[in-house]
Design brief:
Elements (H helix, E strand, L loop, with lengths): L12 H11 L4 E3 L5 E4 L2 E10 L8 E9 L5 E3 L8 H10 L7 E3 L2 H6 L16 E4 L2 H11 L3 E5 L9 E3 L6 H8 L7 E5 L4 H4 L1 E7 L2 E9 L14 E4 L4 H16 L4 E7 L2 E6 L6 H8 L4 H13 L1
Parallel strand pairs: 5-6
Antiparallel strand pairs: 1-3, 2-3, 3-4, 7-10, 8-9, 8-10, 11-12, 11-14, 12-13, 14-15
Helix pairs in contact: 1-9, 4-5
């Protein structure tokens, strides 16, 4: 995970998972990326053994120990993006223990499933989309679809760096040069779905390919991004028939790639993102529906170890 001091302990879904595991008598070890290293053929970590008796008490560090990661039962990867080279190297290192330890989500899976690009595996369910670093190709794409477009960096989270480019903007080339860093930065470009301004988007949490829960995120007035970190408001939601079919369609590949606990984002029936690094929403669903869903996640992790 990220450093403890950066964690919003009142709302973080990872904290919910740790508290549930501790309640069942499991030992919890907390690693930051800088704590993990290899020595010869072994993967080790300088871990803090922790306790979280209650959210209001925060983290309690019980001890600091050197841990051979192959001796763990389960390793949760819950490091937030940006997904940079350091993140990539961390995933490549963690693949060394996947034959001995149940890793959720799989380091192999996270390595190949960029949270923006992974939707390209499911073309039936996505809006008109192109990925390029060429401003001219973005202009051609926009002329072809005759629509406002959304431009997204490939390595960020929480709506960071996402821009709306209106159709027939007079200085679009200047804006595109800036967003692609004059043709050196890859971006994802999608048709802007107008319903997102009023309806927002829908987050669906999946566990082993099955729906765990869902909620709607509605943007504040004047904002097209519905991310909670940008002031979006959460609301109860139900699934449409199209969304149920979408979940069934993407389930086999998610499981094959070891992506067991993910959050998919949908706008007006279109799949726009698949969150695999540290999907959030457990505390939101508990606040909306009064249901604690982290027991199901820990049940799943336990079952994989036991069987």
């Amino acid at each position: 995970m990220d450093p403890m001091e950066h964690i919003d302990i009142q709302y973080d879904s990872s904290v919910s998972l740790m508290m549930e595991a501790e309640k069942r008598g499991h030992r919890i070890y907390y690693f930051e990326p800088r704590d993990i290293y290899t020595q010869n053929h072994e993967l080790l970590g300088c871990a803090r053994k922790i306790s979280i008796p209650a959210r209001k008490t925060g983290f309690r560090v019980l001890s600091t120990e050197r841990v051979y990661l192959k001796n763990l039962d389960v390793l949760f990867i819950r490091k937030d993006p940006p997904f940079d080279l350091s993140y990539l190297y961390l995933m490549q290192i963690l693949t060394l223990i996947e034959k001995d330890v149940f890793v959720i989500n799989s380091a192999h899976g996270i390595e190949r499933a960029n949270e923006k690009l992974y939707i390209l595996e499911f073309p039936r369910w996505i809006p008109p989309t192109t990925v390029t670093n060429d401003p001219l190709r973005i202009e051609e794409f926009q002329k072809k679809i005759k629509s406002d477009i959304i431009i997204k960096p490939l390595d960020q989270k929480g709506g960071a760096g996402i821009k709306l480019l209106p159709f027939r903007l007079s200085n679009s080339r200047q804006a595109l040069n800036r967003m692609t860093r004059h043709g050196t930065k890859w971006v994802m470009v999608q048709k802007f779905i107008k319903a997102s301004r009023t309806k927002g988007d829908k987050r669906i949490l999946l566990l082993n390919g099955n729906v765990l829960g869902q909620f709607r995120r509605i943007p504040v007035r004047g904002e097209f991004r519905a991310n909670l970190s940008l002031g979006g408001m959460e609301a109860k939601a139900t699934l449409t028939n199209r969304e149920r079919k979408m979940v069934r369609a993407i389930r086999p590949k998610l499981i094959r790639d070891g992506l067991y606990f993910v959050g998919i984002d949908i706008v007006d029936g279109y799949l726009i993102e698949i969150n695999v690094t540290s999907p959030a929403g457990l505390t939101v669903l508990e606040a909306l529906d009064g249901k604690r869903l982290e027991p199901k996640v820990i049940d799943f992790a336990e079952s994989r170890v036991l069987h």
